[in-house]
Amino acid sequence: MFALAVVAPAALPAAPLAHPSFPTTDGIVWALAVSGNTLYVGGGFTHVGGLPRNRIAAIDLTTEQVTAWNPNANSEVKAIQPRDGIVYISGYFRQLGGQANYGVAAVDSSTGAMLPWKIPYPDVGENFSLAVTSDAVFVGSGIFGTQLKAYSRTNGDSILWSKYLGTSGKVEAMALVGGHLFVAGRLDSIDKTGFHGGLVMLDPKTGALQQSYSDYVYTHVGHSHCLAVGNGRLFIGGYVGVTAIDTMTDDVIPWYADVPADGVFAMATAPSRVYLGGAFATVNGSTRHNLAAIGSYDAWVKDWAPSADGIVLALVTAHGTIYAGGAFTSVDGQPHANPAAIDDPPYRVDAPVEGSAAANLILRAPVPNPFRSSSEIRLDLPREGTISLDLVDLAGRSVRRVLPNQSMPAGRHELTLTRYGLAAGLYWLRLSFEGRSMAQRVVLLP
After folding, report:
1. d(C-alpha 136, C-alpha 293), whole Å
2. How far apart are alpha carbons 303 and 291 in whole angstroms?
3. Which of 202, 380, 383, 398 is most buried (CB neighbours < 10 A)?
């Protein structure tokens, strides 16, 4: 039985802070990527912030102004991956800066000029996703036949390996975690070895199939649309929800968020949070229109509810702000075409960068306390380690395992304690971490 956090529908909370002057586009945004203080934007637009920019542009996150960087693609850009001073892009384009190209390109991050690296003409197609390592560029597509290839970063003509995904296969997203390449999408086959549902793990060096998560992922989310890495987990979003894999063990974990309708198309992580974008009206029963935030350890729906009026297709987090792209024209009831920059006060003010070590082990007092429906728990870990958190009654008996024994990174973490199944009264939260323990009193009102 898998745990499912369900939130009773309630009135939407106060609005988050959307940046009113953030540059907008005149067309769809498919891809967002951040490198340093630069946000790269790709899609089907021809203007950004009122300036001519064909399908790809860059925004300075300090000034929130469109930069002079202008690769000038002649058709849609679907994926962007910056690395080592190079911005790799893929999509439907056949020209970049007036020069012939076949849908996958390397661009200088300073000048916007197309670099000599390119893939051969026979490999052109609908290129949907990218991943990049120090020695390879992985390209996922939706063309008939071979839909996943690894190209040498030194020579795009050199194909390191390729994978056949079936006649209707399509790679939607890829993520590099712990020396593995996770591939998500419609994976009808892997080299004709049978159905593999929504997620597989490959060896990035050879392309060898290391593990298939078809039964678990396909059952919980259907065909997967997107991946996000953070808080020690790989999150998988799809048609009907979000689930997760422990990146330490590569095992599935009993964590799930129900997102009906057309599902989740984009995700991004922050300390103890996962941000969701897509085409949905509820998350775990709570009203959320195409944007939401949930707890990365308990899947509890957070108060962040900016409500986009159209589908959200791309999300990234940087410097305490969430950046969203897609096909919307307003956020939080205010006119604002995509992309949008939206603050989440707990992420911006309270949470340090994931992985930063707290000076000491701290279990903070729950807020609010006393509480009637739910209370937020925040704890600081001085280093990565195994942690458990229990709610115990006055007799010392555990009445709820808030957090099971599991590895968590250093830094601040946030959990939600709900009243579901609990009687009103006085309880203690008991934290255990590598032989150390501490407690906080919490009161549940009638």
Report:
1. 33
2. 11
3. 202
